[in-house]
């Protein structure tokens, strides 16, 4: 690009009757520019446009990449915040395994109750809602097997408060009845309710029991609760 | 059909007589015929650059625009013969593209020295061009026609005398002097 012509013009002895070569060049370039503008308008009428230069791909993608990064970060943050803490994750995994119910379907008098039979079969089939509907009316009889089954149904339906209530009733009524299993499930339900104090008490009973099959798992959970 | 070097096929369909008329009109400051013929070629040449050199649209557009301006000037200056106008224009388009938008300074031919010498001319800065344009707008119409005719369209003084309805060629010459003085004055006052 040439430097400004002003100084050049000021310091030169220019002929009066003619433009200098530089002046002629400047005039020609200025008139070229005017003609180009006119032609540009003509070309637009013919549908020929000058499309402005495209930004490099990186520049064009930068705003989208930034938005994507924020969205990704937000999604990760949401996922991270909504993830249950480790003890809850462990307890939930243990609760996924249903208790292998094998209680007698007969009542205390040796009679077969059709409703109880249906409930037990539904439980064994994994239909905990149906099992609960059949066993619920029988709870008022205070039979510990019914209470235990109802408690198991509630915990399988993630109704931990109801499960704890029923399992505690069984434990109070007969501390020897399925005591290892009831303590274990109480511990797990308390963990899910984030009631760490009661969870620790129940799990400690499991650890202290010589007959429990879940000692190691209870110990590991206790470790996580500390 | 084989085309001879001076056939209309290689000259945008122009015959020698039509080519002569085109030159005459350009030298009278009449761009209409030129625009009719060559602006119609604009899209074709732009596409040529975009296809063969993978040029961005704006760069192809600018190169073809500059080529047409140069082509017009070469015609006015009598530097182009009725021979192979299409070839000349294509060569100018390529030369301008190579000079302005690539590092390749090697020009396509040594034979066409006018193109080469023109490409060597450095453009003036935008400020100078803007100032001259402002000064130009301050000139009266007669001066603009006279100076543009003489310096841009290469119209001789005798023709300008007739065109501008001046009493004599000597008066046209004196008028040109006055116009130059005014233009310089307007231009320098803008700084």
Q: Could you name the ranges of chain A where pLDDT drops below 50 across 5 or more consecutive residues?
A: none
Characterize the main sheet of chain B: none
Global structural class of chain B: mainly alpha
What name does the CATH topology of the domain at 88-225 in chain A carry?
Serine Threonine Protein Phosphatase 5, Tetratricopeptide repeat
Q: So what's the overall shape of chain A? A: rod-shaped
Cα end-to-end separation of chain A: 76 Å
What is the succession of H and E elements of chain B?
HHHHHHHHHH
Number of strands of chain A: 0
Tally of separate domains of chain B: 2
Q: Oligomeric form of this entry?
A: heterodimer
**Radius of gyration of chain A over alpha carbons?**
42 Å
Number of helices of chain A: 11
Secondary structure layout:
The complex is a heterodimer of chains A (226) and B (191).
Chain A: H1 6-11, H2 21-45, H3 57-82, H4 86-95, H5 114-124, H6 128-135, H7 144-156, H8 160-173, H9 179-192, H10 196-208, H11 215-225
Chain B: H1 16-27, H2 32-38, H3 42-53, H4 57-76, H5 85-101, H6 113-119, H7 126-138, H8 141-152, H9 157-163, H10 169-189
């Amino acid at each position: 690009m040439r430097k400004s012509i002003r100084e050049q013009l000021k310091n030169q002895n220019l002929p009066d009757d003619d433009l200098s070569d530089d002046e002629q060049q400047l005039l020609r370039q200025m008139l070229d520019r005017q003609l180009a503008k006119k032609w540009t308008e003509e070309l637009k009428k013919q549908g020929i446009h000058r499309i402005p230069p495209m930004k490099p791909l990186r520049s064009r993608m930068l705003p989208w990449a930034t938005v994507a990064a924020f969205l990704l970060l937000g999604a990760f943050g949401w996922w991270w915040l909504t993830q249950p803490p480790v003890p809850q994750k462990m307890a939930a995994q243990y609760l996924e395994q249903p208790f292998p119910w094998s209680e007698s379907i007969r009542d205390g008098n040796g009679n077969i109750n059709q409703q109880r039979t249906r409930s037990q079969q539904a439980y064994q089939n994994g239909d905990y809602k149906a099992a609960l509907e059949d066993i619920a009316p029988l709870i008022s009889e205070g039979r510990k097997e019914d209470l235990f089954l109802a408690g198991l149904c509630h915990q399988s339906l993630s109704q931990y408060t109801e499960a704890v209530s029923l399992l505690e009733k069984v434990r109070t009524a007969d501390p020897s009845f399925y005591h290892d299993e009831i303590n274990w499930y109480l511990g797990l339900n308390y963990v899910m309710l984030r009631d760490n104090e009661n969870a620790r008490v129940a799990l400690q009973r499991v650890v202290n029991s010589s007959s429990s099959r879940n000692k190691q798992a209870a110990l590991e959970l206790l470790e996580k609760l500390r | 059909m084989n085309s001879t070097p001076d056939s209309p096929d290689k000259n945008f369909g122009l015959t020698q007589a039509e080519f002569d008329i085109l030159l005459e009109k350009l030298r009278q400051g009449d761009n209409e015929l030129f625009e009719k013929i060559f602006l119609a070629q604009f899209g074709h040449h732009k596409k040529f650059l975009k296809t063969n050199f993978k040029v961005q649209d704006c760069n192809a557009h600018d190169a073809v625009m500059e080529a047409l301006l140069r082509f017009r000037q070469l015609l006015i200056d009598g530097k182009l013969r009725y021979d192979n106008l299409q070839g000349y224009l294509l060569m100018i388009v390529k030369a301008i593209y190579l000079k302005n938008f690539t590092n390749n300074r090697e020009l396509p031919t040594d034979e066409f020295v006018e193109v080469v010498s023109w490409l060597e001319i450095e453009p003036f800065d935008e400020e100078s061009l803007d100032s001259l344009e402002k000064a130009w707008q301050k000139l009266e119409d007669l001066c603009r026609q006279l100076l543009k005719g003489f310096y841009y369209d290469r119209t001789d003084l005798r023709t300008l005398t007739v065109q501008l309805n001046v009493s004599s060629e000597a008066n046209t010459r004196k008028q040109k002097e006055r116009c130059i003085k005014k233009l310089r004055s307007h231009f320098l006052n803008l700084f």
